[in-house]
Amino acid sequence: MRSPYRPRRILIAGATGTIGSAILPSLAGFGVPMRVLLHHRDLAVPLAGPPSLDDPGPRPTIEVARGDLARPESIRGEAQSAGVRIFVLIGYTGTVQERDDTSRPVNEETLPEGRYESENVRLKYETEAMVLESNRSGGMTTMVVSPGVLAQPGASTILGGFVELFVSGELPFRVLNEVWLATSDGADVGRGVASAIALGNGGRRYFLTGDCRRLQEIYGLLSEISGVPEPRRKLPDLLLEELGLLTPVLPRGSFLRRLVLPRELVLHMKRLAPVENARTRAELGLKPTPLRSTLTAMIGTEGDLARRRASI
């Protein structure tokens, strides 16, 4: 059995903001310098702390490189000039999930269809394809490690905002009942990326997802855990799409802005197929956190936030 790979330097892209905060502490366990690629417009720089409170070791050196990372060729140039052995791109399961037929599950070996409602998802797909094609025997080892919908207690995420609205009783209607959500607990993502690096298998796509449920099932779980009843009314998908056209003109932080999703996101979500990731679980030893446990932690955090907001 091959010994785990110990990198001397880590190059990582796609790990800014909330997802970076979930991933980088796990990578700090390698104790080596990290180079983080940020898009030139990104303001938040993810910081890696020690792997745990019980291990107050020194923080690794984090070098930040900025560039036009919306273009796959820019990422390729940064990767080639960094002189690293392993390059990890934090992808997104939606690049494979989005397809015409949403009745059949997809897995790590399923080929993307390459037709997307969202320009951001299309660019993500092109970058993932470039990274996987750049894997070379004897050269740079590349891999794509993809979470789904991030479920991170206390973090600013789309799902977190949705949970906050639900437990505060401010969600007036159910939306997108039939949509599949492949959720990823933030702690699982961090451990999964570290395991993929240690394994060192190039040219691989990994799906770091746990439970994949229809949104209607998640409403039920939230109601069971929080005691808040599900909204009785359902907003038709077509009306939700039309309301999504308003998002560019709605004031940031307004109540309606919190209720409405951008139209391209709604169209993207409606085309998501369910996810299976047996290979990822077997190769990386991934044991995802149960969705109920993650939602319980989120309700504790988001519920406290909602109660504070209601008291203002």
TrEMBL record:
InterPro entries: NAD(P)-bd_dom_sf, NAD(P)-dependent_oxidoreduct. It comes from the Bacteria. One of its GO terms (cellular component) is cytoplasm. GO terms for molecular function: aldehyde dehydrogenase (NAD+) activity. This is NAD-dependent epimerase/dehydratase family protein.
